[in-house]
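Chapter review. Work through the record for ABC transporter substrate-binding protein before attempting the end-of-chapter questions.
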Amino acid sequence: MRWIRAAGRGLLVLVVVLTGYVASGARADDTATGGRGPLTLATAGDLTGYLGRLLEGWNRTHPDERVTLVELPDSADETRAQMATDLRGDQRGRFDVLNIDVNWTSEFAAAGWIRPLPRDRFPLGTFLPPVVDTATYDGRLYAVPYVTNAGLLLYRADILEREGLDPPRTWADLEEMAGTVAPKYGLDGYAGQFLPYEGLTVNAAEAVYSAGGTILGGEGERVTVDSAAAREGIGFLARGVREGWIPEEALTYKEEESKRAFQSGRLLFLRNWPYAYVGASAEGSPVAGRIGAVPLPGPDGPGTSVLGGSNLAVSSHARHPDSAARLITYLTSERVQRQVLTRGALPPVRAGLYEDPELVRRFPYLPTLRESVLTAAPRPKSARYDQVSLVVQAVVHDALTGRHTPEAAVRRLARELDAITR
Ligand code: GLC
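Structure tokens for ABC transporter substrate-binding protein:
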């Protein structure tokens, strides 16, 4: 038996030696090839379940630079918190490439968590113009646009047709139809994403922007929210809950819950991102063939959507920065961007795809979406965006539950935002 133990010891030595060899080999490789090797890609919940398959294409052709997908929760705030925990500190974390929400670029860059990228390495000129700005901070490129997004109003076309009505263009139209037509059919009127998380910040900002207001001015250092427009915007949402044409249940909705309510035929109108329109139109959906999408309404005509989407960034501690950049080039190539739309139901950042006749035939909402993206308003660019958003969520939720009047909510918003930006 002694030989087994001896062999075991020998094996151990061999393993140690080999591990040391591989480790130093990898280090040598890093410098020799500019940092090529395996990667991890962290992303928020993949709501359409396409990204793993899409990365298989890369893994097949790049066996030495394989990427492992790490899927985080589908609430933007929880994803941000997990990424921040991973990136904070001097130690290398688990994540090399990060699919970050467009509004996190400033915070992550200012904190030194992600590294600046050379502009000439990526096809920035082929992207829709507003998305490139979300990837820059302090005049430098810190990420590469990957997916864009703009809110749309989904509606039950079958019901409006039966009533001889056009889809709403103004808040008054929406309120009227949500309040009177929906109950006639046993439906709830209108919902968006009203749980306190990033989605509520988005919905509140859209209401404020649509009424002509703003939340922060300049580069996010001036508080501009104390205005009649902000009161009107928050008042619109609060009135909906008070009058019942926004169901109370909507105060618990994120993207997925609100999509399910609409897709199962319980809602007349839904504010959501285009992926929800694609899902609700797909074969097997109870409302397939019976829905439409238009730009978000505002007080006197079309309103303003918030610019959504995500950018690909490279962690400052990335193990293989060259491979990280190569993966980003792959994911933003025209071929893969097309798959982002056809397989992921997500809006690509490549401008040309919105005018591709074959894609427009398959995704008839593309021209509306393009307009909505081009006219969408970005969220405030602030290195303290996370705190700004937390304040907006908390205060607006209190206005929706009736704890505050819209006037009091706007005053409190101004006060609390002032404390953050000061
Ligand atoms: C979507 C958008 C993103 C936004 C989030 C809010 O994922 O693309 O920008 O922050 O929804 O829930």
